[in-house]
Specification:
single chain, 998 residues, mainly alpha, 5-stranded mixed β-sheet, 61% helix, disordered N terminus
């Protein structure tokens, strides 16, 4: 027994579990109904997890009291204690909704609807709800069945099985099933009327948009047609009686209360118009008399009950009118005025608590989204959704709303809708006012998962989201762009200065003021240049806007035009050669690398045309080397020669980057390249050939400068890594080995000095700061690594490999291929290393273990700190390293017996391994796709940022640009990342089997 002034341990436990009236809760726990379980900790913990533990306990006691006998009570208690899913659902509902607790007390067996769910019950649709209402044969039984279905929706909602959008969709589906049941009851009560007409019920508002609240008017429009042979007047009167009866079935209060009001005031002429019209009458009204707000309302029209075919005819007939509404005079102004009127009509005392209609409320989001839909949905059918969040997502995906803005609006709308749902769920009353009482706010906050300080956290989160909505609503809803876009003639061919700013904003320019200054500089004046650019700019702006950074595209276009505008061929090229202007727009707005290369020599823009500039097809090794060697031969001294070689390299890098960008984006005449592997091979082959030709020219220049025509030693450069594999990216270093062999009669020391001098000078000249990008030559894969000599004789390589070679060096030599210098010496080097990289006996178990150990060590030690392994394209799971080491292990094991494996190219070796049956076709495809995607990402990062990187950019605009290069539209960066993770995950599973398990 507890002494005077001391609290019982139960009292303390109740406080700890969130009860606000522990004394009352103790009395309830002492009631006869709960005696068997009063001390069970499971019950208290479950009650403590609800929105309102006191309310949940009271509801549970009432439900137990309502059970028909002791056996039923015991069965309920046993189930609550033993079955956690039922316990969470039932107590969750009882702690959030006093109204549903009342329903359960009146219908004490309905708790059994929550005992178990079939998989299909987790996300039921109209068909499932129709089954739930099937036995209702009068308005009263329909209300009972409706509440039973509502109970299940609320249980899924409060337990988090569904999110707010899914719960709203389920409520709309339940409303659809209820309207169908009500139509059926009305028709059964008046079969003669039903026989005369076809009656369609078209849902509007939140029901039509598939986003209904717990308690809301259900907005509808009725459409009717006479059945064949019936008089139209009689049919309309019959349809009106059926519609009126259906509305009463749902709206009238009975012993079981009402369901919800059915509101038909959105019909033509509102309350003053006939309740039911024929389809032709509806169309006549909309074509002649309808106001702007009526077309806005029709955005959400959806046939739900009665004659669905007639309902579909109605929607199909009015849809074209909806999407022409934005062309009406003063359309945008009308909608904005209507929005302001809604806010002005809220009582002053309620404005700050109005969740739906107040500033920063739900209606702000809905109106903004609907206006943008009506303006832009004329040309973009993807925006034509009646569901607010779906429409917002489509607006973001289409670039009409900034991705970050859309994410914030989505989060705010979901939070505010969740508040609205929980407020209405408590009493099942139609309200949008945030409660003022602390107890109500505490329950509301806890229902939203805010447990530490429910009231304080609720108000902070609410105000934060409302402020976000208010700020973004002003930005989206009132921006002047909309008026200009709504009146934009579809055949616009020239850009007027008055419409320029609005057009720029509409196209997604982040800094329209700066963009407008560029346009004024480009298009103002009476010169021929300005006249041509005024003609070009409207279409160029559209192409720039198709990128992730239209501002950069326009700025770069101005720079190129400033540099080349006085040359007659430049503007003629853009005006007369169909592909040139679009290709230029794509290249200038796709990132930093290609524009930077172009700005250093703007005349390279000629490559973008169809004519004599050579086009965008990368040139082969032979013509590149021929051009560079000719330039070296004409130069005076090695510095000038290498400058010329680097200039050719810069131009050809631009050609390759432009071809890659245009192939990735596609043009109006040529769709994007579907074969991603082909684009990877194009870049890898072109950059590798260009690097080899540049090295050959630099080597010729250095030898000629220091020794004339003949070096004292034969000299060859061996490409390694991606260079030897013809897989270089835009930002790759050139991995090489240097090998020499003294000429006959030359002292070995003299030959070595000459070879080392050549290496030092080649590397220096290719890295001298200049307007051209440097070419870094990396010899770290040589014997003994950084500790060994930069250059060795062929005999020295032979001695080293015979005596000291490690398994990793054999693996590295798989990519070795002569790229420049003495061809015969290069061939002899290849003959020397072939037995090492393709051992006749394959690999022993010790060597395989060593390779696996090295790989595991590399994975754990070389990944940069802070990098997300799952998104690291080189060292992450399923990345380049995984695929390449797996392929190279197959080459080391089977290269001696399978000729196709004796290649330096990863994709070629992988294909040969598949043909030889060393892995399945499916596994080969998975590895190839992962390798191609990872390579494409690295190329994209270099193109976008102008510097190399192995992971996706964190900057939103840069990430969007990478996504655009990879074929993802605006707003789909998340999809890009998800697809990469999925590809890498599948590849890693194959690697685990083939590399670590085989």
């Amino acid at each position: 027994m507890t002494g005077p002034g001391r609290r019982s341990s139960t009292f303390t436990r109740l406080l700890r579990h969130g009860f606000t009236d522990p004394s009352a809760a103790e009395r309830l726990l002492d009631s006869a109904e709960l005696v068997p379980v009063r001390s069970d900790p499971v019950l208290l913990e479950a009650l403590g997890r609800t929105a309102d533990p006191d309310l949940a306990l009271r509801g549970l006691v009432r439900l137990l009291e309502a059970q028909p006998g002791a056996t039923a009570r015991r069965g309920l208690l046993d189930t609550v204690i033993a079955a956690k899913p039922l316990r969470d659902r039932l107590l969750g509902v009882l702690g959030a909704s006093a109204a549903l607790a009342d329903h359960l007390a009146r219908h004490p067996r309905d708790w059994e609807a929550l005992v178990m769910y079939e998989p299909r019950d987790l996300h039921p649709g109209v068909e499932e709800f129709e089954r739930g209402l099937a036995e209702a044969d009068d308005p009263v039984s329909l209300r009972v069945a409706y509440r039973r279905c509502l109970l299940a929706i609320a249980a899924r909602d409060v337990c988090g099985t569904t999110d707010v959008a899914e719960a709203a969709a389920e409520l709309a589906d339940l409303a659809t099933a209820t309207l169908r049941a009500a139509v059926g009851l009305a028709a059964a009560a008046a079969p003669a009327d039903a026989a005369l007409c076809r009656l369609a019920v078209v849902a509007m508002g939140k029901c039509g948009g598939h986003e209904l609240n717990y308690v809301s008017d259900v907005d509808v429009i009725f459409v009717a047609e006479p059945v064949e042979g019936a008089d139209e007047g009689k049919a309309l009167r019959a349809a009106t009686k059926l519609a009126s009866h259906m509305m009463r079935i749902c709206s009238e209060t009975t012993v079981e209360g009402s369901i919800w009001p059915v509101d038909a005031n959105l019909r033509p002429e509102g309350r003053n118009g006939p309740l039911v019209r024929t389809l032709s009458s509806h169309l006549a009204y909309y074509q002649r008399w309808a106001k702007t707000w009526e077309f806005q309302a029709l955005l959400k029209a959806r046939p739900v009950a009665g004659d669905l075919a007639l309902g579909e005819e109605y929607v199909a007939a009015v849809e074209p009118l909806v999407w022409q509404a934005a062309e009406r005079e003063n359309f945008v102004t009308d909608v904005q005025k209507m929005r302001r009127r809604v806010v002005e009509n809220i009582p002053a005392a309620e404005v700050e608590r109005e969740l739906k209609l107040g500033p920063g409320g739900l209606r702000d989001v809905e109106f903004a989204v609907q206006l943008l839909q009506l303006v832009h949905g004329r040309a973009d059918a993807s925006l034509r959704s009646g569901t607010t969040l779906d429409a917002l997502g489509a607006l973001a995906a289409g670039g009409y709303v900034g991705r970050a803005d859309a994410v914030q609006l989505d989060a705010a709308y979901r939070f505010l809708r969740s508040m609205e749902h929980r407020i209405q769920l408590y009493r099942l009353r139609r309200t949008h006012l945030v409660p003022e009482g602390e107890e109500d706010q505490r329950r509301l906050g806890r229902s939203l998962g805010l447990r530490a300080d429910p009231v304080g956290e609720l108000n902070r989160e609410w105000k934060r989201h409302a402020a976000v909505v208010r700020r973004l609503h002003e930005k989206l809803f009132y921006r002047p762009l909309l008026d200009a876009v709504a009146q934009l003639p579809s055949g616009e061919a020239r850009l007027s200065s008055e419409a320029a700013r609005e057009r720029l904003v509409a196209l997604g320019y982040a800094d329209p003021a700066a963009a407008l200054r560029h346009l004024e500089a480009l298009a103002s004046g009476v010169t021929r240049k300005a006249a041509i650019q005024r003609t070009l700019l409207p279409v160029l702006l559209g192409w720039f806007a198709d990128s992730a950074d239209p501002d950069a595209g326009l700025l770069n276009f101005r720079k190129v035009s400033d540099a080349l505008g006085k040359t007659p061929w430049y503007l003629r090229l853009l005006r007369d050669e169909g592909a040139a202007a679009e290709n230029l727009a794509r290249v200038l707005s796709a990132g930093r690398l290609a524009p930077d290369l172009l700005m250093r020599a703007p005349e390279a823009v000629a490559l973008l045309g169809d004519g004599d500039g050579g086009g965008l097809e990368p040139r082969g090794r032979a013509p590149l080397e021929q051009e560079i060697l000719a330039a070296v031969g004409r130069a005076e001294g090695a510095v000038q020669a290498v400058t010329a070689a680097r200039g050719v390299r810069r131009r050809e890098l631009f050609r390759t980057a432009a071809a890659d960008i245009v192939g990735s984006y596609g043009t109006e005449a040529q769709p994007a390249e579907a074969d991603q592997g082909a684009l990877v091979d194009l870049v890898g082959g072109a950059v590798s050939d260009l690097t080899a030709a540049t090295l050959a020219g630099t080597l010729r220049a250095v030898v000629r400068e220091g020794w004339g025509d003949t070096l004292p030693t034969r000299f060859a450069i061996i490409g390694m890594g991606r260079f030897g594999g013809h897989e270089l990216g835009y930002g790759s270093d050139a991995d090489v080995l240097f090998v020499h062999e003294p000429q006959d009669g030359v002292d070995e020391q003299e030959a070595a000095r000459a070879a080392n001098a050549v290496v030092a000078e080649v590397r220096r000249l290719l890295q001298v700061p200049s307007a051209d990008p440097p070419l870094l030559v990396d010899a770290d894969l040589r014997p003994e690594g950084k500790s060994g000599p930069l250059v060795r004789t062929l005999k020295s390589y032979e001695a080293y490999y015979r005596r000291w070679s490690l398994v990793w060096e054999s693996q590295a030599l798989l990519r070795a291929e002569p790229v420049a210098g003495d061809e015969e010496l290069g061939r002899r080097f290849v003959r020397l290393i072939d037995p090492l990289r393709y051992p006749e006996a394959g690999l022993g178990a010790d060597a395989v273990r060593e390779i696996r150990r090295l790989k595991a060590r590399m994975e754990s030690e070389r990944l940069p700190r802070g990098a997300d392994p799952k998104l690291h394209t080189k060292l992450g799971p399923g990345g380049l390293s995984d695929v390449e080491w797996t392929v190279q292990l197959l080459q080391l094991r089977h290269g001696a017996e399978v000729a196709g494996l004796r290649t330096t190219r990863t994709r070629g070796a992988l294909a040969a391994a598949r043909e030889a049956g060393l892995l399945t076709r499916e596994d080969a495809v998975i590895l190839d796709e992962a390798w191609v995607l990872a390579t494409r990402v690295r190329n994209a990062v270099m193109l976008v940022r102008g510097r190399a990187g192995d992971t996706f950019p964190s900057d939103a605009r840069e990430a969007a640009a990478v996504g655009r290069y990879l074929g993802y539209g605006p707003g789909h960066v998340g999809d890009m990342l998800d697809d990469y993770r999925r590809s890498a995950r599948r590849a890693r599973a194959v690697v685990d089997t083939l590399f670590y398990g085989g």
